[in-house]
Amino acid sequence: MDILEFIAWISLAVGALSSVIILVDIIQHPQMMTIMNIVWPINGWFLGPVALWTYFKWGKLKAKDNQAEDRRGQGAKVFLSTSHCSAGCTLGDAVGVPIVFFLGLTLFNSTLLAHYVVEFTAAYVFGVLFQLFAILPMNRERGWKGALKDSIKADTLSLVAFEVGMFGWMAIVHFILFQNPPMPSEATYWLMMQIAMILGFLTSYPANWWLVQKGIKEAM
């Protein structure tokens, strides 16, 4: 086992442990917004200790049994909105990877392009669904169709911004960092994916700030 693979296993273990800690607490203290019960553990996988810190500092303020006053600033609320978007993207990307890998898909003889198309599509579907399950409970008068339109409007720019960061890193991994890029069957591949998710989060944050500022998306 080389040093990078060792680091990968440590990073994946820390991410998994962070997700489990958050999940155990959420089972005891469910979120007011049901979809956030899924969002927080997913964030734990790639944000690790940062997800733990933000969950216990900001996330628990929105637990059903919490009586404390919500004093979160705009930055924290946009962080949660970005977390919500990123979780949907992450789930879609994680679903897309094995589809491309096990089916041996390529596009124009490129596996990377196949990953881009399949993962973007899956991320978009999950991202819109996550947004839908956030919007619909707050605006039931809009109905499913209206809530779906609002979800597409609120999530599209945010998702594209996320994928810019993620896909950019994937290209660096594929063309610059490795002579033979790691495969999804290797721990190193998933370390690279964790980094891709973090970069996607960072590129998505300004987009979410703008969406919230313009009233296109509600701060969470």
Distance between the termini: 43 Å
* Class based on secondary structure composition and strand pairing: mainly alpha
Query: What number is the mean pLDDT?
Result: 90
**Secondary structure: number of strands:** 0
Structural topology:
Elements: H1 3-28, H2 36-47, H3 49-57, H4 74-103, H5 111-135, H6 143-177, H7 187-213
Description:
It is built from 7 helices and no strands. The chain is mostly helical. α6 packs across α7. The protein is globular and about 50 Å long. The mean pLDDT is 90. InterPro entries: DUF4396. This is DUF4396 domain-containing protein. The chain crosses the membrane at residues 6-26, 38-56, 113-136, 157-177, 189-212.
Give structural attributes.
75% helix, globular, 220 residues, mainly alpha, 7 helices
Summarize the structure.
InterPro entries: DUF4396. The chain is mainly α.
